[in-house]
Amino acid sequence: MPFSSLSDPVDLARAQAALEAAWNEVRSTIPDAFDERERTNLAYIVAALVHVAEDEDDLTRRAIERYRRCAAA
Q: How many helices (H) and strands (E) does the chain have?
């Protein structure tokens, strides 16, 4: 459960919205067979960044950047 560590409802809502936005951005680059695994990976990235991001847009941007760095490694 990637978001199980989030107890603040505002943080949880920001994380869920950022995950959806980030997933919409990267999904087209993921083969269908790996959708679930990669979405989960992205969710963990979002959860790790939720407390350092300024707002939902910043969280989305940071998550996409980290996801792409990890995918390229």
A: 3, 0
